[in-house]
Amino acid sequence: xxxxxxxxxxxxxxxxxxxxxxLCLLVSCSxxxxxxxxxxxxxKIDWTPEPTYFGIFYAKEKGFYKExxxxxxxxxxxGAPIVAGEISLGAVKVGTTTSxxxxxxxxxxxxxxxxxxxxxxxPFAILSLANKPVRSLDDLKGKxxxxxxxxxxxxxxxxxxxxxxxxKSEISEVPVGWGGAEFLVAGKVDAILGYITNHxxxxxxxxKDYVSILYSNLNIPLYSYGLVLAFAPIDSTxxxxxxxxxxxxxxxxxxxxxxxxxxxxxxxxxxxxGIEPSLNEDRIIYGIDKITRLNAESKANLENIDLWKQxxxxxxxxxxxxxxxxxxxxxxxx
Length: 334
Hints:
It is a single chain. The protein starts with a helix and ends with a helix. The strands form 2 sheets. It has a 5-stranded mixed beta sheet with strand order 2-1-3-10-4, with helices on both faces. The protein has a 5-stranded mixed beta sheet with strand order 7-6-8-5-9, with helices on both faces. 40% of the residues are buried. By secondary structure, it is an alpha/beta fold. The chain is globular and about 60 Å long. β6 (144-147), α6 (152-163) and β7 (172-175) form a beta-alpha-beta unit. The protein has helices at residues 3-26, 54-61, 64-67, 80-88, 99-107, 152-163, 181-185, 199-205, 244-263, 265-275, 281-297, 314-322, 326-333; strands spanning 39-45, 70-76, 94-97, 114-119, 124-129, 144-147, 172-175, 191-195, 210-214, 227-231.
């Protein structure tokens, strides 16, 4: 056989072997397909990096998403209400929002594929300094409270006052924008409406002892899930759509980030501080500790979350609940 003929035969054999090996890489002995390449996923968090999202960044840094078959890119949103809408419309495939915003979208006829709570508590609170404490809603009468009327903290605050039969005119409101802690420290207000995971952590990082009234601890509790990983409706015509089991494994990797990040909080704090240098590592650790404790203590569940939201039909409440089906997918996708 000529050298040219032998070369052709070798090329054919090489091609056959590569094809055969390629099939073996794609199919296991049981005939089930296995992951060959990672799927690129854009994950949109609803705000800029904060301790609230520590588990997401930890999952990416430590390779939990890669192990699950995903190459994840994290981008930042402009608020939970906006991201909730983007997900429900399919403009964002996966992102974070809150349970009350999911319920609002469902009431407008929007849909989701899967919703998984990451912060299983309502983070909203009334905060005051320990040397001038506000321990109950009645204590607010005649005092100044820092508010942001554009925030859902204010909406829930008004609900809490109605539930307690307190006229809001008995309390002086001071606009503080999206901040608040600095107004409290400066003595410009007696209390602020805020997030225990943000404003409370800010006060702790400043070395200020404070008193908090969690909305979920009121006489008539206001329960919610403070952070939810939500997936867009499945659109099989889209090149980057996620199957149900891919959603499950993505969510599982995210929860692994929160679990292992909490167990290695110093390392998790370094990861997040590396992403957002303006965040102090001690502040991040305070946030991780608070989130972990409140998740463990939470009494929120699918039967009591967001009952404070008015004008939502029972049908829409049940429909929203149906998207929290991580456990149902676990049996199918493990």
